[in-house]
# Entry
Amino acid sequence: MGFNVAIDGPAGAGKSTIAKLVAKEMNFIYVDTGAMYRAIALFLLRKGIKPEERERFATECQDADVTIRYEDGMQQVLLNGENVSGLIRTEEVGNMASASSVDGKVREKLLDLQRNLARDNDVVMDGRDIGTNILPNAEVKVYLTASVEERASRRFKELQEKGVACDLEQIKADIKERDERDMNREIAPLKQAEDAVFVDSSDMSIEEVKEAICELIRKVK
# Structure
């Protein structure tokens, strides 16, 4: 049986960055559920589907096959055999993922793979509903967040460093809108699990957040 760590939180809280570092530190497998949903989102976008065309999600996603493999210890996300790891981090894909992830059929398609990985391996999994829905029996649960201003600032700097034109106020508005959507969706809304440890990273360094979570794991494992 695997030892499971669930890290939940809103968009831009640094979940993926922290989860990867924690997994490396503890020698666990990192399962990026958000990347899996983004792969489905990319598939839907390639089909010409818009985020508001929700009635098409369930039928169209059935042709998408999302798998995970590891190369040199790094997770690679495959969509119908194509490595799309470098194509799924755009704002457009992120917004589609937020919209399509509320669909029951989309979630059902990915749920079994996620749970099988967690059953057989020591894993760190991050997302919106890991501790509340996907891995409700995880040994360690963390709700990682930061202020809207801090999350927007981080995303703004990240895009600027990549040479992408962006507007801080628009990013802030997008984050607020996504928070509202994620927290109020019908299926598995974003919320803190009752037994999760709340971590606000607004004034913490990446190293401080990583070490705080690793210490939680060490106390339990």
